[in-house]
Every structure is written in structure tokens, then in C-alpha cells.
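During the reporting period the student researcher (J.K.) took over the structure-prediction task from the postdoctoral fellow and processed the backlog of single-chain submissions. One of the processed entries is reproduced below for the supervisory committee.
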Amino acid sequence: MRTRAAAWRRRARMLLLTSAVLSGAASLSAALFVSITLYQVYFDRTNLPDLGPFTRFEFPTIGHVYDANGQPLIELAREYRVITQYSDIPPVVRDAILATEDKRFFSHSGVDYLSIPRVILVL
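J.K. obtained the following C-alpha cells:
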């Protein structure tokens, strides 16, 4: 009887020790993941494009070729962009874009923390 009870206690201690080590490792890895993610979101600025032209709204322009009478013959560009004011976009288009892209766009400050677990699960 004593050997069975001692063996059971030894197994119970080993199980508790193993679960404590595993939960500690899981907590440490979760803390490490969160700290790396926060560092990359808020502080890591490597490999980012130059934001100067974007903040000054210097988008690639469209080149125009005119004939002798001053009439445009052709427009040449890599990208055809038209700068539009937010108020000029119809509300139904704004709502459609927000519904597909980011439903909580106006309620967070740039990073939607509630979407991070969803993004991680997709990877």
C-alpha cells in the first residue's frame, strides 16, 4: 500500500512540476511575442518607404502629349490617380470600403488590437 501511495504522490508531483514548467514556458513565449509585436508596430522603422512624398501629396503625375492645336492626344502615366476629397466620395462607397476593409476604422487610433488574433490565426 505504501509503495502505491508513494508512487502515486511521485507521479502527481511530476505532473504538477511538468505542468508548471509548460505553463511558465507558454507565458514566457506569449510575453516575448507580445513585446516583439509591440516593438515592430511602434518602434521599428527599418525597411519602410520614404513617407515624404506621401505626406506632401506628391503622387506620380500624368504626362500629357498635345497636338499643334493644344488639344491633348494622349495621357501617359504608370498610375492614373485622381485626388479626391473625402467629402466628395459618396457615403455608400465609403460604407462599402469600410465594411470590407476595417469595420472599426473610426473607433481605433491606427492599430486595431481586436483584429490581431484573427490575423495571426490566418497566418
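The committee noted the following: Residues 1-48 form one domain.
J.K. will present the remaining backlog at the next meeting.
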